[in-house]
Amino acid sequence: MPKDKFGETIYGYMKPLLTEDLMKDMHLECRKIIDEMMRLDLKMLIQKHQADFKSMGKKFPKVKPRKKPKAPPVPKPVIYDKKLIKQTAPVFDLNLVSKPTTKLCEVYGDLNYAAYNFNIIDPNASFPFPAYGDIKDRIRLSCIMGCGIQAGATRRKSVMLLGPERNGKQFLADAVAGELNAIKIDITPEVFTALVNKPLKILNQVFLTAKAFQPAVIFMKNVERVFATKVPPEDKYLKAQVLKAALAKQIKQISVDDKVIFIGTCTNPWSAKAKPMASIFDEILLVPRTDYGSLSQFLYTKLMSIRSIPRDISVQPMAQLLRGYSFGDIIKAFDEVMTPERIVR
Predict the structure, then answer these.
(1) How many angstroms separate the CA atoms of 127 and 164, rounded?
(2) Spans of all domains in the chain
(3) What is the pLDDT of residues 190-246, one digit of tens each?
(4) Are 300 and 139 in contact (CB under 8 A)?
(5) pTM, two decimal places
(6) Lowest mean pLDDT: which of 7-11, 38-42, 156-160, 269-273?
(7) Lowest mean pLDDT among 2-16, 90-104, 111-125
(8) 273-282: long-range contacts at Cβ-Cβ below 8 A with a sequence spacing of 24 or more?
(9) 107-157 pLDDT tens trace
(10) What is the CATH code of the structural domain delimited by 82-286?
């Protein structure tokens, strides 16, 4: 093998790989011996201290015993039998499970090139904010690769999508499930706690179903209602706060090897207790308002799909005008305006 590409070789093997592997084995062997030696040193040091205190006529203070760390819980393997079918059946009967086919390429978004230039000058720059395309790339890393399908990627058990209302957060969650070819289990309060008599029991069955049929995306819309400081009268029927402790416990119990991710959306974070809500998420992604580049892509693609529209139509003025409006409102207005009857006129 050429040295310029692979470095030095020993018997046809790359030298760095061999030496690193040998060093790892040596470290593991030496650590056991060093650990025993350090324990003996500590024991001898305590004995010397006791002798010093005795010579001064003082009582040696009691040494607090070291607390043994708790052993990490070993996840129970899922056994596929009739009992499992019986436990997961209520989740399917409630129509909580779906199979989204949306792909990430269907998400319109352009990068914020100004932010890139600012970050080169100052890596800690907090302005300007990322654009929709930047968040799209971040979702690919955190939610798709971080779900456990990519070896070496940073594992994410739970991710929050924080942003304005009707801005495509649920569509992004569907895109994650579509890219993973995963099932999506919706535990939004309107379709879950408001309709179920024993929500905590069903929540356990939801996470069991996700582990049994992984890869899986567990989704909750407006997760701030679970951690609300004050429940509005119109939301009391949802009984969302029942899930507060159980949800955090179930997310912690997701194993590193499980290809399961919890995605929650949040629109009004100021109406919830921030600390307990943020503690259940490994990462919080800010879904920004629409920008000029993302809207230009969206409008051009949408208009070019209509054959009667001139090919040289300019979408830049409209994109500039619609900046800041949510994608949900823009798509709704587009569908209402660009009807066949109006296009013919």
Answers:
(1) 19
(2) 3-55, 82-286, 292-344
(3) 888 888 888 888 899 999 999 888 889 999 998 999 888 888 888 888 888 888 888
(4) no
(5) 0.75
(6) 7-11
(7) 2-16
(8) 273/227, 273/228, 273/229, 276/227, 276/244, 276/248, 277/223, 277/224, 277/226, 277/227, 278/160, 279/248, 280/158, 280/247, 280/248, 280/251, 281/158, 281/159, 281/160, 282/155, 282/156, 282/157, 282/158, 282/159
(9) 888 888 877 777 777 777 666 778 888 888 889 888 888 888 877 778 889
(10) 3.40.50.300
DSSP H stretches of helix in the chain: 3-6, 15-55, 82-93, 113-121, 132-139, 169-180, 199-212, 244-252, 274-279, 292-304, 316-321, 327-337, 340-344
Distance between CA atoms of 1 and 217, rounded to whole angstroms? 44
- Token pair of 205, please? 């069955």
Contacts 24+ apart (CB under 8 A), 150-156: 155/256, 155/282, 156/261, 156/282, 156/283
Cβ distance 258 to 143 under 8 Å?
no
Separation of alpha carbons 297 and 315, rounded Å? 9
Give dist(CA 62, CA 303) in Å, integer. 79
Could you give the 3-state DSSP secondary structure of residue 200?
A: helix
Q: What angle do CA 303, 312, 112 make, to 5 degrees?
A: 65
Query: What's at 116, amino acid-wise?
Result: Y
